[in-house]
Amino acid sequence: MNSLPKQLPPYIKNENGELWLTEDERENLKISYRIKDIIFSDQSPFQHVMILDSYDFGRMLVLDGVIQTTSIDGHIYNEMISHVPLQFHPSPKKVLIIGGGDCGAAREVAKYKEVEEIHMVEIDEMVVNVCKEHLTDVSGNLSDPRVKFMYTDGVAFIKEHANTYDVIIIDSSDPVGPAKELFSYEFYSNVYRALKDDGLMVCQSQSPIFHMDVLKQTHANINKLFPYSTIYTATVPTYPGGLWSFTIGSKIPLSLSESKLMPTDTKYVNADVLKQCFQLPQFMKQQLL
Amino acid sequence: MNSLPKQLPPYIKNENGELWLTEDERENLKISYRIKDIIFSDQSPFQHVMILDSYDFGRMLVLDGVIQTTSIDGHIYNEMISHVPLQFHPSPKKVLIIGGGDCGAAREVAKYKEVEEIHMVEIDEMVVNVCKEHLTDVSGNLSDPRVKFMYTDGVAFIKEHANTYDVIIIDSSDPVGPAKELFSYEFYSNVYRALKDDGLMVCQSQSPIFHMDVLKQTHANINKLFPYSTIYTATVPTYPGGLWSFTIGSKIPLSLSESKLMPTDTKYVNADVLKQCFQLPQFMKQQLL
Lengths: 289, 289
Fold this sequence. Notes:
Chain A has 9 helices and 13 strands. In chain A, the strands form 2 sheets. In chain A, strands 9-8-7-10-11-13-12 form a 7-stranded mixed β-sheet, sandwiched between helices. In chain A, strands 1-2-3-4-5-6 form a 6-stranded antiparallel β-sheet. The radius of gyration of chain A is 18 Å and the shape is globular.
């Protein structure tokens, strides 16, 4: 414990010699993770950034006290937000990722040889740098020359591009603070404009258990803009409620090609998961379809 | 807060006038739920039994401080442990439930008109009584005359029956304390014997994230005893890790009949979920199949 800073970051408490991170963004639910070590802790211009080493989930990226991704389950989210849209696109050459500072989505996209350019637009350079250095289980210490990092506001960036991308992945944090605009109708309409004529987008659309309102609104917005849309789910253990939703908007009909190769080194997604993730539980069908 | 007992039960703390239940059965992960009210709290001969009213999950059954089921997500677990095996059996007439004191599984089984007898073998009568009275969102205040309650030890009960049941549902708590024997090879071999020649069983087999060892051992035991076995999953928000597994052992080939009717009043399971729940993520396939 010699590496501990003299003053503990907010969100972390020392209880009888044990360090605990408590997530309390929900008013009536707190999840506490026992921490081995604080690897990195600093305030960026945008948020408080930590890399923690936890007992149950390995290393974690924590922004403003909220876990974003971990060594143990980060791949579930990152594989699902990347491979599903890429499997739908007939020939993804130019991919834009908005957010995704942990680099996990870019790492998954880079597994497709046909992809020529990956533009990563992340507002917070500190997040990318610490994930590349300290969270390599998730980031893979990404150094693929096809990835171009742009540290700027995704909302402003998207307005300046039209008919440019094959696939756009919106890998945002929760719709509070800086990420709020990434859930707006105006933003999605700019995403539509930035896509090529056969392009498609995906976004994380929150927990169907706790934020059905956000999922409903996101799906309604995307469904209004795009001729084709669909919702899929995955189970992400460190996200409250476990069940997580993603929404796709597409300019072309959504059909999975049997001939499209899935990278062989995935840990969660496979051809079976690709088929099952669109089969929604009854309460979601009733409220959404 | 006038209804509060003078002395708070263990597991519940009063923090600045707010009541919080903290689940800490895992050493390095604590989940805390804010509680509106303690509806029931008493020690049975087997365990400490509580019904709590929580802010995020409604009423909860809590045994020895561990949440077993809630108003908000209890149906997910209960529908999945009941409808999946019943959909596989060509003609389920006599069903045994071991455990399942919240009555939710019995409630789901009772939705099948072809079922003639439902034997509920639960060791703790207090659990059944308080769930029938105080947790009706889960129990449905079950009063179906086909359900026969037997308050006895499932391990002893199963030894005394041979060639008796079409479907056996093992709805146990975690494999610690009284439920430990319900995960043993000897117990499953007695379950095999208690099933008719075309019978099948299902058990909950814990979290693939945190207890892959339990799932592996359970699957190995069942796979050794039964000619046909399979694993399926569901997402249960109040179980640590979210993703939960179930294992089926069957004396007959497992095939879903298109003609078999699914009850129309389910909230989670439907024909789509029935097909997708057997499609396992890659890490489970690699370790189990």
